[in-house]
Design brief:
Layout lengths: L1 H17 L7 H6 L2 H12 L1 H14 L3 H36 L4 H16 L1 H16 L4 H24 L4 H24 L16 H26 L1
């Protein structure tokens, strides 16, 4: 709960700091991107719910091999989903934003913000899946600590890019991407050094059909739900 609250607070901080850039329409431009970003991202990130459930289920029934398969499959699946999300989001962002009523200077700013943001979705996707793995084994504190640290870095980078470098929505988007890169690296290192069945091994990275099927089966409803909610906001 605290982790989710912090993420909301840092998003609010982004809006406040971009307002300091003095660029007309910067706050409004970012404000119009939320529904579109959630529409694309939630479809793919929703599958992380499947990771959480499947890993926890395998741990609960004492199946070490299935747990390891689910963990390593999830990481590769997250990377693939993130890349697809980045490509799709990058190319549909401007047309969709225009259909939502953005035009002129606002459209340019919002399009720039979303394109940079979507380029970072592989890291955002990996972060969410790694957090799902940790939570599946009962570790909710590590994600809290890491996201707290990366959130503070996000705020600091926002201030540097906006106030020191004179950037606007591009600086805020870049700060978000870099802070998520930091989160992903720290979470990945944590699981590489973990002493449970969820430990990551470079030699075990492969996708198994059974694990992929389970993740999609459980995660698809969550992804569709998130997408439908975003569509309702866009309308």
């Amino acid at each position: 709960m605290i982790t989710n609250l912090l993420q909301v607070c840092y998003s609010a901080a982004d809006m406040i700091i971009v307002g300091l850039s003095g660029v007309d329409g910067a706050i409004g431009a970012i404000g119009t991107t939320g529904a579109l970003i959630n529409l694309v991202v939630n479809v793919f990130i929703g599958f992380s719910v499947g990771t959480n459930v499947i890993v926890a289920r395998n741990i609960g029934r004492g199946d070490k091999k299935a747990t390891e398969n689910a963990v390593h499959t999830s990481v590769l699946f997250a990377l693939i989903c993130g890349v697809i999300c980045a490509v799709v989001g990058f190319f549909i962002s401007r047309p969709i934003l225009a259909m939502m009523g953005n035009e002129g200077h606002i459209l340019d700013l919002s399009s720039l913000y979303t394109k940079i943001y979507f380029l970072g979705t592989p890291f955002i996707s990996m972060t969410n899946y790694l957090i799902a793995i940790l939570r599946a084994k009962g570790d909710t504190k590590t994600p809290l600590y890491i996201l707290s640290a990366s959130g503070l870095v996000n705020v600091l980078l926002n201030l540097v890019f906006v106030l020191a470098f004179g950037m606007s929505v591009d600086g805020v988007a870049l700060a978000t991407v870099l802070s998520n890169v930091m989160s992903m690296i720290l979470l990945f290192i944590k699981l590489l050094r973990d002493d449970s069945w969820c430990r990551l091994y470079w030699s075990k990275f492969k996708m198994t059909r059974a694990a992929v099927f389970d993740i999609i089966t459980v995660g698809l409803p969550a992804g569709v739900q998130g997408a439908l909610f975003s569509v309702s906001n866009m309308l």
